[in-house]
Description:
Helix Hairpins; mainly alpha; 4 helices
Amino acid sequence: MITKDNKAKAIALTQVSKNDVGSPQAQVSILTARIKEVTEHLKSNNHDHMARRGLKQMVGRRKRLLRYLERTNFEAYKATIEKLGLRK
């Protein structure tokens, strides 16, 4: 579970404006933070299949958001990928 502080830091990385919490960039940033936490959890808990399923769902959601962002605002897409260190 992502903490309030970690979520705020993740949003701050890709915020478009001061009160931005729902833009695709912010959502991708939050999902990336959650994916990292679940990945660390799965390293020590190999048989947690529900967490693995949730991880796959989050990765799919992030992929769809990135695809949307790429279609609608390519410059923001490139900036988001670079800031979060995602490979593409």
